Amino acid sequence: MLLVLLVMVLAAGAALATGGRFAHLAANTLTGVHWLAAAAIGQLLGSLFGGTAYPVGLIGSAVCIAVFLRLNLRHPGVGLLALGFFCNALVVALNGAMPVSLRALERAGVGDAAVTDPRHEISDAATRLPWLGDVVPVALPGLGQAVSPGDVLIAAGAGLLLYAGMGASGRVPATTAPVWDDLEPCAGTPALLHLSPEADRELSSEPEPAPDDPPQ
């Protein structure tokens, strides 16, 4: 989803600015990642074959994602991911597809877009829990779309999980200003400041200038 990718890019930038590093992701303790791979395969096969395979693949994918989330609930952001997936699964299960608000599409600047994806349908009076459908407009130039509240929660959870996994400190690193005793004057200048031992030895080792010749 575009919103998820955008939030994750922003989260990665914020993590880098506050001391996080991509290398820290290698030490993450997420378990059951193979369940995510199984979920992706289930959705792909359902979309390719269509018909009865689509809802079967969707249900199997939801089960795999639920197992993965349950195994990793202790990680920051996973709770938001679980809540977002539950909201999306609930509204899809009640309606057979994700309902899309035409008003949200218009506000996102894509009101003339046709909804032909079998995973989506236009909301109407018979839609159940329409407020859990794609009702949140995302007005991006050339990439406008409508997303669901569940998608917003998923994006927030993914961003928080990435931010925490990169080891960000939450504070922007700053250079500490030097204290007075650390300041050293340049060689040859009046020693108005308190000289450090190193600067004192440097000045004392310089030869004194020869006196001027007396006048004739």
From TrEMBL:
Keywords carried by this UniProt record: Membrane, Signal, Transmembrane, Transmembrane helix
Protein name listed in UniProt: DUF5317 domain-containing protein
Signal peptide feature range: 1-17
Transmembrane segments: 53-71, 77-97
InterPro entries listed in its UniProt record: DUF5317 (IPR035168)
Source taxon at top rank: Bacteria
Keyword Cell cycle: no
Lineage: Bacteria, Bacillati, Actinomycetota, Actinomycetes, Propionibacteriales
Entries under Pfam families matching the protein: DUF5317
Disordered, as annotated region: 195-216
